[in-house]
Amino acid sequence: MHQMSTSAFSTHTSLATPSAPPIQKFRLNNGLVMVIAENHYHPVVSLQMWIRRGIADEQVDEKGAAHVLEHLLCRSTKNRGIGVIENEVEKTGGEINAFASPDHSVFQFTGASRFFDPYLDLLSDAILHANLDDNELQNTLTRMKEEWRRSQNPERSLSTKLFASAFTRHPYGHSFIGDITHSPALSREQVRHYYQQNYTPENMVLVIVGDVDTKTVRHRIEQIFANVKGSASVNPRTQEPEQQAPRIQLISTHLADSDVAAAWPVPSLNHPDVPAIDLLSVILGQGESSRLASRLKHDNKLVTDTSSFAYLGKDPGLLTVGFTTSAAKTLTAYDALISEVYKLRRETVSEQELTKAKTLLLSDAFYQKETVQGIARKIGFFEVTTGDFAFEEHYYHAIEKVSPADLRRAANRYLTLSHLNVITLLPAAMKDNVKKEQLLANANKEESLLKTQNSVLSLSPDAFGIYRIVLPSKTVVLIQENHTVPVVEVRAAFLGGVRSEDSHNNGINQLLAHMLGHATKQHTHREIVNMLDGLAANIDGFVSRNSFGLRGEFLRSNFSTGFDLFAEMLTQPIFTSEELDQQRAMVLANIRRRKDNAEANTFDLFLETLYEHSPLALPLAGSLTPVSALRGEDLQNYFSQHYTRDKMVIAIHGDIFADDAIAQIQRLLGSTSNKTNEPIKQAASYSASSSGKTVVHMNEQLRTNFVLGFRGAQMTSPDRFALEILGRILDAPHDGYLVHALSDKHLASQVACYAIEGIEPGYFAVYVETKPEASDAAIDGVKTTIKQLTQEKVSDAELEAAKQYLIGMHATSTQKAGVHAASLALGELYGTGYDDDLKYDTRIGQVSKTDLLQVAKKYFDFDHLVLTMLKPASTSAPTQMPIR
To answer: Distance from the CA of 691 to the CA of which of 40, 171, 499, 573 falls in 20 to 30 A?
Structure first.
């Protein structure tokens, strides 16, 4: 760890972008560390306060305190009332987030960089001047209990039990969400004691990343924090003794499938064996070409999903692998998993497989740096965990030096039978069919085997720096260079999606999106996933109501090879019956799950009612009957007819040179197709009912959900910006019209507005979740509030607050290369202009109060209002009344 005075500083470049100033680290006399990384590519900044204490540092009578403070500190301070901090950040379009982990607690503000000063003031107030109000503490404990209840899913349950098994004494065995069984008993004094002992300057690391000036920021931080007093308490953690025998737990659940996980203790992050352990985790279960995915999932069809990760922290952690499978295959799949683990102990991996694993692992260092908050998270994590944010650089150098022999030595040192922990979540019917002895049998056999072996084009960009070219095939190509991060994103988009479907093939685009790229005339699915994992790349399909396409994510160094494969998927796809059956099952499962989601179900009903006989009334997820009947030749014919080169837009954003990219695209996609295809079928026009419509369905939920809305704007209409602002004015969390009309009167537990445009008119809708007895009042409240917008202008302050939020949110949400590639492609495709998203701030800024009033009168037509509702079956049937 660097020891520094307020005048000393160290400089590193490992985490900085090529054009950014070096990252600088300072230490105040009171112990507080600040790390500042200038990054001027986006007008965004992230402020993160990392506390070097977390859940694992709680004392017996403080269990849950770290998680309580995560919720409590930004709620109110001695200087600001409840909700003020959240409200102030939210009004700027920024994001506020906090989380507590075993090793640290983090408070994060991210937003437009022009709000840096107020963000710093708010963050410092939250950290230094905690109110710890007793009433708010009790409210927080109530919210935590609800959060804990929502978090109880199989994945979390499996992880929680696995850590509890491996760490019987060390506090890593505590639930990562905080000990909910103790939290409700916490007093204000206990929380305050934990706060005073741990939230001290010596425990604070303030990370600032983004569009700031280091000298100015440092001065501001010193002004606020230099005189803060307090010293860090020393509470040594109880160390975990070495595990001497395997630990197996069989747990009966209500689940239909089995979830199984195995884990082995491993060293802390700064141990020299950890790079090899990290690579073992990648080889075992990360990526579709990993050993578990290849052999258990694809080859032998034993499981439906696999996983692997290494938890590496301040203290010794855990390497875990797992899978989900049908109940009948539990034992067979588990034996296969154990065999794959022991192969790493018996056999040396190939250089090719190791190189692929290194590529996957090292690529993560780049993909996580597309946003300022991602960069800050990495800086903060390494600084707090190891005492040196530049440790990351040394760590990845160590990754590169790992040899196949190093992997085998690490596997034999740590992946042993005596260190094995196994948790199985079994369907109740399987409880008596699986025994601990059966789960140990194959591991014992593998241990015996080990003992018997001795082996161990020249273009000019526009004003935005975007290149546009139309190939002889009529494919439109858009390229925007961005050399700050070595990542390249590609989107190939077509008009289509649900608007080109009918009731007989609804869901065909979903199925195509799942299958596109799984196999081509030249490569099998197995070969493709191996290639993608070797390239550290991702390629998959996407579908919306208006479009369909393929998206790709590549490292700069692998773009050429990756795009060859991308183009092959677009021009030579095949849809095998084997892959169709597998992907169809996933699509059908998604359709069924959507039926159980009240919000999604209510919206599907709304669109069905609003659009009536148009294809836009069809659910985006698809329908069970047509999806079940589709054959491979149906997909092939549909794709060949609808998605050809002359209808395609290719957009590329990232660390690529336009000349090189266009030359490759011309070679692969530039020639004209020898087929003549009919224009894609357009969505049928529709007319709203003259009397409006109310549709009510009953379900088994305990709450009432409804969507109330109107026909909306088209993508090419300037009205869409006014509608977006109106939506924000209505549902702003703290001072929106609907908050005052519903939430403040306890008429709704959830309110949201959606202003969605389309090629055909979209929709403007309000979604509300409420109690059954309050539904009528909630509906009246929504209607009255919307009518208000058609009768009087909003205030200057309301308009400016909405604009400020939308512009700030837009800045934060457009940091990743994939967002830019998508906006380029879809803007060109939809006719709004490939630079449409780049003009967003200007167009939002031009909307006036008069515009809002005129647009509200134009679209909020109560004679054509549509209301759809899901009510509990136990409630009485509603009276059918026309909506006015």
So the answer is: 499
The pLDDT of residue 677? 53
CA 265 to chain centre: 28
Tokens of 56: 């694992």
104-149 tens-digit pLDDT: 999 999 999 999 999 999 999 999 999 888 787 887 787 777 666 6
Q: How far is it, in rounded angstroms, from Cα 223 to Cα 275?
A: 40
Residue 679 corresponds to which amino acid?
P
Residue 748's identity, in one-letter code, is A
Two tokens, residue 658? 């336009």
How far, in Å, CA of 109 to CA of 44, rounded?
11
Q: Contact 251/426 with Cβ under 8 angstroms? A: yes
Return the SS3 of 39.
Answer: coil
Please provide the average confidence, as pLDDT, over all residues in the chain: 88
- At residue 637 the predicted structure's pLDDT band, cuts being 50, 70 and 90, is very high
Contact in structure between 431 and 330 (CB atoms under 8 Å): no
Please tell me what DSSP assigns to residue 7. Answer: S
Which of 229-233, 441-445, 449-453, 662-666 has the largest mean confidence? Answer: 441-445
H or E segment to which residue 60 belongs = none
Going by the DSSP 8-state scheme, the letter that residue 75 receives in this structure is T
Helix/strand/coil percentages in the chain, nearest 5: 50, 20, 35
Using CA atoms of 608, 612, 617, 622 in order, give the dihedral in degrees to the nearest 10: 80
Q: Which spans in 572-718 are helix H?
A: 577-595, 598-611, 624-629, 632-642, 658-669
- Residues of the chain with pLDDT > 90, as a percent, come to 68
Taking alpha carbons only, the member of 199, 57, 52, 190 closest to residue 123 is: 199
The conformation of residue 48, written as its DSSP 8-state character, comes to E
pLDDT at 728 > cutoff 90? yes
CB of 442 within 8 A of CB of 338? yes
Give the chain's radius of gyration (CA, Å).
29
pLDDT on residue 236: 87
Contact 546, 617 (CB under 8 A): no
Phi, psi of 543 (to 5 degrees): -150, 145
Q: For the chain, give the longest Cα–Cα distance.
A: 86
Residue partners of 376: CB distance under 8 A and separation at least 6? 37, 46, 47, 48, 108, 207, 208, 209
- Interatomic CA distance for residues 173 and 180, integer angstroms: 14
Confidence of residue 97 (pLDDT cuts 50, 70, 90): very high
| Cut 0.70: pTM above it | yes
The torsion angles phi and psi of 389, rounded to 5 degrees, stand at -65, -25
Question: What span, in angstroms and rounded, lies between the C-alpha atoms of 870 and 705?
Answer: 5
308, 292 contact by CB (below 8 A): yes
